[in-house]
Amino acid sequence: MSRPYVIDQMISAKSIAARIEALAHDIHAAFEGTDKLVVVGLLRGSFVFIADLVRELDLPVEVDFIEASSYGDGMESSREVRILKDLRGTIEGRDVLIVEDIVDTGHTLSHVTDYLRSRHPARLKTIALLDKPARREVDFRADWTGFEIPDAFVVGYGIDFAQRNRNLPYIGQVRFTDEA
Ligand code: IMP
Predict the structure, then answer these.
(1) Which of 1, 66, 68, 180 stands 20 to 30 A from 82 (CA)?
(2) Where does the pLDDT of residue 2 fall: very low under 50, low under 70, confident under 90, or very high at 90 and above?
(3) Which DSSP symbol is given to 164?
(4) From the alpha carbon of 155, which atom of ligand 1 is closest?
(5) What are the phi and psi torsion angles at 9 (to 5°)?
(6) Catalytic annotation on 35?
């Protein structure tokens, strides 16, 4: 049976929108002059972030998705990362931006980055909306981060808890109500 919980707002929809505008500005500067930027979203948690981010990018953009195994339906991260769904398009010689929801232990994004780098893209950069540096197990930092957050379990803005709460417009922290 699932435990009862409430969600406390941590980052408002307005703050997220403002931060994405600033990030898009930096990404634009980094990829200025590109003939095409392949924006790769990591399914499923990045789907809201990538939708808002690409609409702030005034660059020729292709959108693709990749899915890697992560938490299953629980709160525990797994160290073994497998590719469950690969890209549809080719990235050899192309500029690529990998878009992730959260860097937690770092295993997922570092694995996917190595995996895609082996296909010889021209430039490859990474962006994560959220970063939990306190949880890191591998030495990895995204090129751009939206917000650094403490070691808390968060939901909303595409991010789930057991496939729920992805549709919240803000980032909220899960708080179990059966705890003292
Ligand atoms: P990592 O491999 O440990 O860095 O985990 C990355 C993935 O774990 C993210 O893409 C999320 O899918 C998931 N994850 C990490 N922290 C949270 C959280 O607080 N809420 C929901 N999912 C999370």
Answers:
(1) 1
(2) confident
(3) B
(4) 20
(5) -65, 135
(6) no
Which numbered atom of ligand 1 lies nearest the CA of 108? 2
- CA 101 / ligand 1 centre spacing (Å): 7
Confidence grade of residue 71 (pLDDT, cut at 50, 70, 90) = low
Q: Counting atoms of ligand 1 from 1, which one is nearest the CA of 130?
A: 16
> Both tokens of residue 140?
């990895």
- C-beta of 131 in contact with ligand 1 (< 6 A): no
Quote the ligand 1 centre to 180 CA distance (angstroms).
25
Please check whether residue 132 is in contact with residue 150, taking contact to mean a CB–CB distance below 8 angstroms.
yes
Which residue's alpha carbon is at the smallest distance from atom 5 of ligand 1?
Answer: 104
Q: What is the pTM of this model?
A: 0.95
Largest CA distance in the chain: 56
Confidence band, pLDDT 50/70/90 cuts, at residue 109? very high
The CA-based dihedral angle spanning residues 93, 30, 60, 45, taken in that order and rounded to the nearest 10 degrees:
90
| Ligand 1 atom 20: residue of nearest CA | 154
- pLDDT given at position 61: 97
Catalytic member of 58, 104, 139, 143: 104
Domains annotated for the chain, with CATH where assigned, are 12-149 (3.40.50.2020)
